[in-house]
Structures are given as structure tokens and as C-alpha cells.
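Pipeline run #58 for the internal structure catalog. This entry was flagged by the ingest filter as a single-chain record with no existing model, so it goes straight to prediction. Upstream metadata was stripped on purpose; only the residue string is passed forward. Reviewer on rotation: M.T. Logging verbosity set to normal.
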Amino acid sequence: MVVIYKKNSPYFTTPQRNFLVEFLDILTFRSIPADDTDELIVLSPQFNERPDLLSNELYGTPDLWWVFTVRNPDTIIDPIYDFVTEIEIFVPTRQRIFSLLGL
């Protein structure tokens, strides 16, 4: 049985395979290309190792925590432990993310 992931899930575009049993293939992130509307921010202490809190503040949901890793692949390798105070990251606007993800 194939699982249908929500559009805001990091697994939405990851293929599912059937080889005797269903399984989720290697994670495939959606593309979030750079854009002139992206804002460069310096992460404040309240968001240290908490991308879900920043996602909730910017996008109104903690479910888009993975967006920061996808948008900043050279800065954030581990989505939790690389998300530290004083790091500079680009954050897409709410409107652009919702448009890209079809939300």
C-alpha cells in the first residue's frame, strides 16, 4: 500500500518502491532555488537547534522545518545540529514557499 504524504512533508517527492514489501526510497528533497525575495537572517538564540520554531514563526507551521536545510545546503548539513545561534541563512518568503509547495 502506497503512502500519500502531505505537500508540506519533506517526503512528498521521495519515491516509494515495492519489492515484496513497500518501502520509502532515499529522501529526495524538492528544489528551493535562490530568489531575490529571500531574506538573509542571523539566527537568534531562541531558534538554536530548533528549525521547527523558526518555521512556525515565519510560515505558521512547524512542518516546514526542512525548508531551511534545502535552501541553505552549503551551510546546513544536519537540520538540527547545524541550526545554531549566529549562523547566517537565507529564508524564503511565506508566499514563495506556499507557491512552490502548492499549499
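catalog note: The beta strands are 16-19, 21-24, 39-42, 88-91.
catalog note: The longest helix spans residues 51-59.
status: ready for reviewer M.T.
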